[in-house]
């Protein structure tokens, strides 16, 4: 079965619970994390996740919930389809 991928990025001041909150949202929508990279530079947290959104019924709703989660945590969270992300970052 072919996957439809999206990129979730998280940036902000480090604090307890960022990964847990983001992955809880993804789990609620039954979205599988395919790959994850996170790092902390001084007090700043960054994370990029590749997720499978083939079974997602409403990406706009998921995007909105992730953004609200980010606002509650004081971080920025974005979700972009992989093809959009690639075309935006192509040189």
UniProtKB/TrEMBL annotation:
InterPro entries: ACT-like_dom_sf, ACT_dom, UPF0237/GcvR_regulator, UPF0237_ACT. It comes from the Bacteria. It holds the Pfam family ACT_6. Residues 7-80 form the ACT domain. Belongs to the UPF0237 family. PANTHER family: UPF0237 PROTEIN MJ1558. This is UPF0237 protein N780_07905. It comes from Pontibacillus chungwhensis BH030062.
């Amino acid at each position: 079965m072919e996957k439809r991928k999206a990129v979730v990025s998280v940036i902000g001041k480090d604090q307890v619970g960022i990964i847990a909150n983001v992955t809880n949202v993804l789990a609620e929508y039954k979205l599988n994390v395919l790959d994850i990279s996170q790092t902390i530079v001084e007090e700043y947290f960054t994370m990029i996740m590749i997720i499978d959104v083939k079974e997602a019924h409403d990406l706009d709703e998921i995007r909105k919930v992730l953004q609200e989660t980010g606002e509650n945590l004081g971080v920025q969270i974005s979700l972009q389809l992989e093809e959009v992300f690639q075309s935006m970052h192509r040189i």
